[in-house]
Design brief:
Blueprint lengths: L4 E10 L14 H5 L5 H19 L10 E14 L4 E15 L4 E13 H15 L13 H11 L2 H6 L5 E4 L7 E8 L3 E6 L4 H7 L4 E6 L7 E5 L3 H4 L2 H18 L1 H4 L8 E2 L17 H20 L3 H10 L2
Parallel strand pairs: 4-5
Antiparallel strand pairs: 1-2, 2-3, 3-4, 5-9, 6-7, 6-10, 7-8, 8-9
Length: 324
């Protein structure tokens, strides 16, 4: 298929000296941590939490719990629109790498983990809200998420993606507070016990258009399940260490951003409904601004509309219509 898009991948290290780039969506977990007077302590503490959790989960041949550390890269994907001379910051994800201090080897982890997208901000914060404004019942616009899903699949299938990454992405999100999850008998050595939701969510449907299916697992010594979005076979396509790198990274972020769920003092039972108003939880030593984060999603959605959706409407419509 002829297309007008070309992808450029850049990556920078997420360490305690990380400074968010101008083009980074500042609602992104790590960017929110890396601002303000506590930025360095925030990052140092979060990275230490990730390492501790990784070693607790990868406990075999690791008697002192210090065999591994996790290095994180922020992967930014710019989309160049042919003939325009413009590039648009389309996607930002995290890549994990595992350092084995016993063998002095660096093991490639998983790409994905966190998922940021300006077009998704546009879909949820601009398009969906405008569609429902003044209506008595909530509904979803026709073709909601179609363009975003096709752009994502086009990127994952691109030569550029395959040159940089050996395996498809795994994205790990919080569970939804308006669904109930039921614990099953299925248990995986790294991912833990599997839960199943009572119904599908808008997020699930949105990610399905990106070619991703979802399963829910609660790892050992966690208090709530995580949502794992993936292509293919989550349980057999990835090694235990790869999966542990995603769990330790994303559970740490969720403890900081969703402490009511992921730092709750009670563990999810056989039937579990997440509650963002749960007062029985602990806070981490990490400072962030939740209110600012939700406000910025709307601003970033408008940025996408102004700099991408409207100027390239014809090109995008043609692409969406012709991409199977």
């Amino acid at each position: 298929m002829n297309t007008d898009f070309k992808f450029t991948i850049k990556s920078i290290c997420l360490d305690e000296n990380y400074q968010p780039a101008q083009s980074t969506r500042i609602t992104t977990n790590f960017a929110n941590l890396a601002r303000g007077s506590y930025r360095q302590a925030n990052l140092r503490n979060a990275l230490k939490m990730i390492d501790n959790r990784f070693n607790a989960l990868a406990h075999w041949d690791n008697p002192k719990g210090d065999r591994y550390s996790v290095e994180l890269e922020i992967v930014s994907v710019d989309m160049d629109i042919a003939g325009s001379g413009d590039s648009f910051p389309s996607i930002e994800v995290l890549k994990t790498n595992i350092v084995d201090h016993q063998t002095n080897k660096r093991i490639e982890g998983i790409v994905g983990n966190n998922f940021s997208s300006y077009v998704r901000d546009y879909d949820f914060s601009v398009l969906l809200q405008a569609h429902n404004k003044g209506k008595s019942s909530f509904s979803i616009p026709d073709n909601f998420g179609e363009l975003h899903g096709k752009l994502f699949k086009y990127f994952i299938n691109s030569d550029v993606y395959k040159q940089h990454f050996k395996k498809p992405p795994v994205i790990c999100l919080s569970v939804s507070d308006n669904k109930t999850y039921h614990r099953t008998e299925n248990h995986h050595p790294a991912l833990g016990v599997e839960y199943q939701p009572n119904e599908s969510s808008l997020t699930e449907q949105y990610f399905k258009k990106m070619g991703l299916q979802v399963r829910y697992f609660m790892p050992a010594n966690s208090v709530a399940p995580l949502a794992f979005y993936f292509v293919g076979d989550l349980l057999n396509d990835y090694t235990h260490l790869e999966l542990v790198s995603t769990i330790s990274t994303m559970e740490t972020f969720q403890k900081i951003y969703r402490p009511e769920i992921y730092n709750a003092n009670a563990v999810a039972g056989k039937y579990y409904q997440p509650n963002l108003k749960n007062l029985d939880h602990s806070l981490t030593q990490i400072v962030y601004d939740r209110e600012e984060r939700s406000k910025l999603a709307s601003e970033q959605g408008k940025f996408a509309e102004q700099h991408f959706i409207k100027p390239y409407q014809t090109v995008l419509e043609q692409f969406s219509a012709s991409y199977a």
